[in-house]
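Q: Sequence in, structure out?
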Amino acid sequence: MQLQRTLLAGAALSALASLSFAQTTPATAPVTVLPPVVVTANPLGAGEGDQILTPAKVLSGDELSNRLGNSLGDTLSHELGVSASAFGAGASRPIIRGLEGARVKILQNGMGVADVSTLSNDHATAVSGPTARQIEILRGPAALLYGSGAIGGLVNVVNDRIPTALQERPTGEAELRLGSVDRSGTASVSVDGSAGSIGLHLDGSVQDAGNYRIPDDRIRDDPASGSGRLPGSFSRERNLGLGLSTIGDWGHVGASVGVLDKRYGIPTDEGASIALDQTRYDVDGLLKNPFGIFESLKVKLGYTDYRHSELNSEGEAETDFKNRAFETRWELAHAPLAGWRGTIGLQTEQSKFSALSAETGTPDTVPTTKSMSTALFIVEERELGPLRLNAGLRVENVKRRPDAGPDRSFDLTSYSVGGLWPFTPGYGLGLTASVAQRAPTTEELYSNGPHEATATFDVGNDAFRKETSHNIELSLQKTSGLVRWKANVFQNRVKDFIYGQLTGNLLDDEGLPGD
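A: Exactly. Output:
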């Protein structure tokens, strides 16, 4: 099938105000220049000022603190062009321009989170908001370089767990937040320091939120309810991370470990809940001027051991979801060639996913499946007179190998080109066109079983073909002066769009037709 969407993104307005007071400071007093905000997920290092070529939004500092919610989707849901899925307080994933699930890739420090949040809306993203330094929303050429799942864009949660610069003195941050509607409390702390050429980082957070407060006797079809709380709307999270690295004029190399433990309710009649835990190991290295025309070599390695159990109202596990993933990423940034500067790279991913019955240990819902992907990518940028040009290309092969069902292999090609014309000082007009391809996920291909938390029986289709998206976007923005704004008009056409559809068939607890 083919999906077509044409939308006008609302214009975002921001006004900058200042107050003047009598003072004796000379008129020649130095002006404080704020450091630029850098989008770390962009290989070219562009900031928010480059949003026409690389549409981006960065939440950091007070802005991030003020918008922090119990989940990633809640935190980003008020951003322009972003909404959120909702299946309880603990499970909410960002939706970018109407695209969700596997079409929006979630990263942590530039590497995939390797959770199973794309499988169903009741599955939480395995990232922690309270310890994040900044959250980046990225679309355009740079987004495509992180995988075929980035048709809609990507969200990168940055916690700087691996230090890349030495500290002159130890620094730290601590925050305490309280909420009334769910009797919530959040405490987080992070500490950075140095010992010689070694950089150290420690962070941790605790987040507890009870059931939402609602008017008494307002739960439909439950006259006995009078607690004034919505059952199954609680969320609890524990997060701890440690990182260290050796840093010098030549670059840096470091490693980190992070542990995440989360428990949250599903507000359904069945009273289900989910217990999630993840252990993550990362290695990050940068070598300056490695050889020839290349200015830097970046290497990232990541291993994730993820698990969550879906629990019934008695707290007993029904299904255990597991995903073990290993990812590598290599990037070479080259010096300008014929006016072009950019990055070329290689990315590999291997994972083993399973959904097993907690009682029998046999596959439940989805067969155990191994996935492999290998990708080559390049992103380039140059100036041509007043014009700025940007282009990206990704070539990828994705394989799915289930224990039950046919093996599938997909060859994917995604590319994007764009240009910016500053037709007058303070104003810019941009045009971007892209083609992106996405391989069907494991659950889309092979699902065939009951899903306790959503009360559905999921059936996939192992004959699905790759999705192909064609996008064109016209952008206009004002970047200086008291009032600044931006507006985007875009059209997105998707061929072989994959979606879930309710059949209307009902099954009883034994899997037989009935209510």
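Residues 1-34, 47-52 have pLDDT under 50 and may be disordered.
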